[in-house]
């Protein structure tokens, strides 16, 4: 019996990640067949470049799949089974400000962590609610697989403001680290069975074993990471990492030194070594600039080359390996596979000594009803203390958004481990308010 062919909308169709996701879905046509793919973006000009190039690619590689791109929500979201969402409200111009403004005050300037992440989160909530409402209105049975950043704040906003929507919040960062773990122990990504707990961009691996034999890889990984971080030559060669990412993976050895029992998420460097991060940052050339000069230029250059030639046979677009996680998640829901995957879900006792209503990132069994968190038991004092502080930041951001509260956003910034004092927090906040006047609610 032939499998059902699915209708998918990609929200954020003008993203540089869209071509890789489309290519990945084409590679999975035997186990996840598609009837249609629609791109949706509120920036029609940007999306048109990616859309026109993908239209050429789809005609050559999968002419049986209906492909379109649009700025009309009704056209985009009607009759869809899955919405894959990766939006960036304010695009890279605002990301530059998110990173540069805190650095002026000697504070970490990062896309998802600290003041920059809070600023981005305040913008993202509005954009996410908009596309969730479109999905619910036009395709109420549709599932949204959301990997828009900052995922922790977005997930908390979904819990508070759209609790009944069929939204699963996920992150590809643990996917990349798990791939590096596989390189270190000489295995493939799918060979590993992992356990993990934390908040998004804020967690720890507690177990890494061979899925088939049960062999424990933690001792080997702990030894390797204590000397090299997660950096491997294979990763450098195959993933074409920017130097800033190589430094991030290297820094994991210092994270492990402080907490040698578990393998750390690399984003913990922003909270545990903020002074180091600031010292190694250039306020005039941040990660946003690297992306604009690198990935942004490459992907849009490839798209324009496809349009110029009228063919995609030169392999200008490549498969995005992280996109395989999104396809696997869609398959788990569509076919009720009960695959174990890391998702961001309401705790409800999964971490037994942590807030029940916290949006935590833990292994989940995923089936047709969505993700079901697996019990991780109690966590130690150090990790729980860090998580408690960061959770309060995320909850205060969402409360500030809902209540339009200046005070609560000031409290959120003050409580962030990346910010040294309430005085510095206020200076940064006042500048961020001016920069985000087109995007944030007006705070009182």
How would you characterize the overall build of this protein?
- The protein is an alpha/beta fold.
- Helix content is 50%, strand content 16%.
- The protein contains 17 helices and twelve strands.
- The strands form three sheets. Strands 3-2-1-4-5-6 form a six-stranded parallel β-sheet, with helices on both faces. Strands 7-8-9 form a three-stranded antiparallel β-sheet.
- Helix 5 packs across helix 6, helix 6 crosses helix 15 and helix 16 packs across helix 17.
- The termini are far apart.
- The relative contact order is 0.14.
What are the SSEs and their pairings?
Layout: E1 6-11, H1 18-27, E2 34-40, H2 44-61, E3 66-70, H3 73-77, E4 82-85, H4 91-104, H5 114-138, E5 143-146, H6 151-161, E6 167-169, H7 173-185, E7 192-199, E8 202-210, H8 218-228, H9 233-239, H10 243-258, E9 263-264, H11 269-272, H12 274-279, H13 287-309, H14 323-335, E10 339-346, E11 359-367, E12 370-373, H15 381-403, H16 406-415, H17 422-435
Parallel strand pairs: 1-2, 1-4, 2-3, 4-5, 5-6
Antiparallel strand pairs: 7-8, 8-9, 10-11, 11-12
Helix pairs in contact: 1-14, 2-13, 4-5, 4-13, 4-17, 5-6, 5-15, 6-15, 8-10, 15-16, 16-17
